[in-house]
Amino acid sequence: MSSAEFSVGHLVWRLAMKWRTAVDRALDPLGLTHAQYVVLASLLALDRPSQRELADHTGLEALYVSKLARALEASGLISRTRDVVDTRTVRLELTARGRSTVEPAVALVSSLLDRLLEPLGERTDAFSRELTALLAVPLG
Length: 140
Description:
Number of domains: 1
Number of strands: 2
Order of helices and strands: HHHHEEHH
CATH topology: Arc Repressor Mutant, subunit A
Low-confidence stretches: none
Strand content: 5-15%
């Protein structure tokens, strides 16, 4: 089967795998995995989200976010605290160590993304809008 014969689904899967592998390799010297990076980078943008809010934001399963959060807390990169109003809710926040770890990682991943998107040139914004539209389609 030639690359021209690949289905769109296969191409999306291949691109996602290429991206995940590249990010994992780039972040390895910093001691982070792609999933850990997604959690930490998201915490830069969100104000003390709950684990559920973070799961919704990242697209990761809530149980996986919980597992990642416990490991990141044990590493001293985030803090997990109970919400004062709803004690069932756990709030997440970067520690100073987490911030100093994730900031260079964000720069590294941003550079990697620029390299990936370079062939699109001026079409990058349109591509982003199309991906956003696809992500909004309910499938399950």
